[in-house]
Amino acid sequence: MREFEFHVPTKILFGSGAEEKTGAAAAAEGAGRVLVLYGGGSAVRGGLVDRVKLSLAQAGIDCAVKGGVRPNPVLEFALETVREYRDQGIGLVLAVGGGSVMDTAKAVAAGLASSAAGMEEAFRGRAPLGAALGVGAVVTMAASGSETSPTAVLSDGRTHEKLICTSPLLVPRFAILNPELTCTTPPLQTACGAADILMHTLERYCADLGGNALTDALAEGLMRTVVEYGPRCLAEPGDYAARSELMWCGSLSHCGLTGLGRDNGFPVHRLGHELAARYDIPHGMSLTILWPHWARAARRVLAPRLARLARTVFGAAEPEEDAASLACIHAVSAWFEGLGLPVSFAQAPMGREEDQVLAQFAARCTSGGTAPLGGLCPLDYGQVLAVYRAANGG
């Protein structure tokens, strides 16, 4: 096991009605005025925003409220919000929603603590993030795990480029997790969320070939849970037990726990960001489209890991490593399709793409062909392009 540091400062308040504790959690952070961000109207129509505002008021905390965060959130909205609330005495930014709202809240918190320009420089990788206000989250979707992670992802609305900022300053101070809030999540978002959760651990699991016994066991246990309960959430949307299992998996899958002692390149996420940014499809869907094709390209190195995954998570019985690794790719693909998600461009909303666009994707993933796509099995420009072509032609 390699050396590592592990610190997750997020306070988790989990359970039915947990959103009623929002005010107390914000007060514990010393917040005098809170900016509440949310996405679409469902958070208002369902009364959640009002319940959050009431909880804040009961704790003596004033708040401002802004909606309109879109899926695949854009940098431009975050910059606009920073400029709008720059001089309004905001002490904490509270996300009410899923990963898109949480990532936007992180960016806004960074901008309010310094400047819109400084936040943009950090997201473009031109300068380290120097400061950020505290962030809290009332989570309404089991998916991104942004409530326990130090990372935020935004899209540049002009260039369709994904901008990623990772800093300990962006880890939320507290997260409110009420599984009941996820019971009305539409089926497509539920499915994409389950796929995203699986991939957060699967990418970490495929970052080495073993030697981390406890980390492996944690990762395998989490993946087995997602594989079981993801479909149950679709079959019985109101099943609190299933929703609670999936929601907790989401938080644990992206806090770093299931990858301790490993290097994590997240190659499939990098591949998928190109699709999500260009086509505005759900992030989880972008991963299901590309993972099977990346896994086939990386199988020459990852066969032992894929074989173990097939046996420990999917119950495969193939004794030979080669056959078991192929069984793994088939099992993961079948699980994705069982959730109603595509495993190729042809099955996805955008359909097949022109080869020149695939070449642009591959070039961005490899810094213009000058650096391989990272991970345990690095892929050069030609190999990355072959992955996109395989996904396109499926």
Topology:
Elements (H helix, E strand, L loop, with lengths): L10 E4 L7 H7 L4 E6 L3 H4 L2 H11 L3 E5 L8 H11 L6 E6 L1 H15 L2 H8 L10 E6 L11 E5 L6 E5 L7 E4 L9 H19 L7 H23 L4 H14 L13 H13 L3 H30 L8 H18 L16 H11 L15 H13 L1
Helix pairs in contact: 1-3, 4-5, 4-6, 5-6, 7-8, 7-9, 7-11, 8-9, 10-11, 10-13, 11-12, 11-14, 13-14
What does this structure look like?
With 394 residues, the protein is α/β, with parallel strands linked by helices. It has 14 helices and 8 strands. The chain has helices at residues 22-28, 42-45, 48-58, 75-85, 99-113, 116-123, 187-205, 213-235, 240-253, 267-279, 283-312, 321-338, 355-365, 381-393, and strands spanning 11-14, 33-38, 62-66, 92-97, 134-139, 151-155, 162-166, 174-177. Strand 6 and strand 7 form a beta hairpin. Helix 4 (75-85) packs across helix 5 (99-113), helix 7 packs across helix 11 and helix 10 (267-279) packs antiparallel against helix 11. The longest helix has 30 residues, at 283-312. The mean pLDDT is 96.
